[in-house]
Amino acid sequence: MTTDNVTMWRELDIDLKSHDRLLGALGPIYQQIYLSQRNRPEGMGFFDFVVGDIHGIRVRELREHAKNGGKVVATYCVFVPEELVWAAGAIPVGLCAGTQFSVPIAEEVLPRNTCALIKSSFGFKLGKICPYVQASHLIVGETTCDGKKKMFEMLGQYQPVYVMEVPNKKTAASRQLWLEEVRAFKGVLEKLTQNEITAENLSAATQLTNQRRRALKRLYDLRKARPVPISGKDALLVTQVSFYDDAGRCTRQVSALCDELDKRVAKGEGVALEDAPRILISGSPMAIPNWKLHHLLETAGAVVVCEESCTGTRHFSDLVAPGSDGLDGALNTIAERYMNIHCACFTPNNERLDDIVNLTKEYRADGVIHYNLQFCHTYANEAVRVEKRLEEEGIPLLRIETDYGDEDTGQLKTRIEAFLEMLRK
Amino acid sequence: MICAGLDVGSRTIKLVTLDGNDLKSQVAATGANPLKRCRELIGDNGYRRLVVTGYGRHLVAPALGGEAISEIKAFALGSHHLFPGCRAVIDIGGQDCKVIRLSADGTVQKFEMNDRCAAGTGRFLEVTAATLEVPVGSLGNLALGATRQITLNSLCTVFAESEVVSLIGRGEETAAIALALHEAIAVRIAAMSKRVNIAGKTVFAGGAALNRCLGRLIAEKLAIEMVIPDSPQTVGALGAALLAREGD
Fold this sequence. Notes:
The complex is a heterodimer of chains A (about 425) and B (about 250).
Chain A: H1 3-11, H2 16-35, H3 44-52, H4 57-67, E1 72-75, H5 82-87, E2 91-94, H6 103-106, H7 116-126, H8 131-135, E3 138-142, H9 146-155, E4 161-164, H10 172-193, H11 199-222, H12 232-242, H13 247-267, E5 278-283, H14 292-299, E6 303-308, H15 313-316, H16 326-339, H17 350-362, E7 367-373, H18 377-393, E8 397-402, H19 409-424
Parallel strand pairs in A: 1-2, 1-3, 3-4, 5-6, 5-7, 7-8
Chain B: E1 2-8, E2 12-19, E3 22-29, H1 34-42, E4 49-53, H2 57-64, E5 67-68, H3 71-82, E6 88-92, E7 97-102, E8 108-113, H4 122-131, H5 139-144, H6 157-169, H7 174-196, E9 202-205, H8 212-222, E10 226-227, H9 235-246
Parallel strand pairs in B: 1-4, 4-5, 6-9, 9-10
Antiparallel strand pairs in B: 1-2, 2-3, 6-7, 7-8
Helix pairs in contact in B: 1-2, 3-9, 4-6, 7-8
């Protein structure tokens, strides 16, 4: 840890003592979960480097940007249209909310029976242990869940927060509401940055984000190969890092990784045994550093080939179509792209059921694990329909509800191993 | 040659050895050092092949040179061996409970298991038995003698204990409280069984199957044909031993 980092963290009003413990805990976990994997692609080196200096180099870039008058806009959800943020000359950062470390701090304020993601994100602010939160000028929330909605109200006492309203249905009126929300967000960003969002800069920003989506899609497509050339853990990490890294650099790094994986696939080289059960995970997002389920699965001899989640396919699956008539047209196509995310906050959300079935086939998955964070009511309840649908399709399913803690590891192992035994028979 | 199955549970360790068709079984408390307890159980008796199941399987299997399998598979194997026509298993152990649906050939089709908490498990019975000052082994018979029916709202081991304390304070009949505790577990197990959609002959196994009241209540709620093995605690260890013999 460099002195430069410490100085920067101090300037950002980080609680250094607590922050030291957080980083101190992350190192050994990363060693155990990531660096101990065998036959990793060399292209993962960049991502190891990023995690190794997780609160350093990227934060410094954001600070430089701010020193030059730029703004940093933090988000928690794939519904916030980042094209607009880039177009306004600001940098979007997807905040992480994936560690138990910040949960006890949040529980000093929030009810315990709140999902770990909400508690973790709130705890980061309350405990002043996340430099990304500290370095951001605006946090943009959204109404994809009731717990988050209320948490954002409290978060607003500490830092400027703006909430976008994501509708819960996909009717014409809902789409109109969402389009208005996108337009309003444009206004908020213009006011924050003092930059005008134009058809030109929006088009450039859309190209930037679409390119990253294409690169991530390419990475996921490579996971369809048998044997699979990259572990689920590594692929998940790439997705997680893409939320806060520079979009252009991310595209280049992911593309370089894919070039390497292309060669692996051509040679039939994989990271898991050819008969390793292939698993698709569907459900709640896994914010960095939540690697719990992937690690349990891959340690038990399975390999995760796809994530149908916001830290998976929903993050990149549709591109923003090119707008036809100027700024208005561009805003329309952006709004449309985001309304096509099959989040459990929508009712009905039948498209997600189709997605799971289709992805299972495309990725040649032997079974599906439905993952939901404890107290995440939308995913927990939607799981009932997922289960019914998959039973009709003859696709084996295991439902797992958990949080960021480790105390249920024993039970999870038993269930996962029993599921894999079922798939292997 | 001898093949052995160990079920290293949270409360007890079960050992089943198979010498040809000659079956022997032992049960011992897990204690604080399960590996040591396993070694004591095995003693000087060598075994040709060992399969380990139970929550301590990953601790014990590598140390004793055995293969590890999940309890779900172990209970499925053991139950199918004892009752070849069975189509489901309900297992209530010390810290978990599971419901397994089997195909006609005994393979696992679907299962559910409790997650982190001890609600509806043997541990729940132990804690509440202690509160009622009754040995856990006689809790079931006590409940069967209840003259009144009351309802327990909480299934959480911690909250149920305080609810039991308040019922005691209200002067409720001990047997009625005991019955309410059994009812609470049976309701939970029945709900889990419905999620797994079990039908047909069902084996009730695990330490809690020693409790007659519980078996009766669950069978009534599900309206299923329930069979209870002579030694319900060792079904998992038996399954492990059978697998060891199969691989021999």
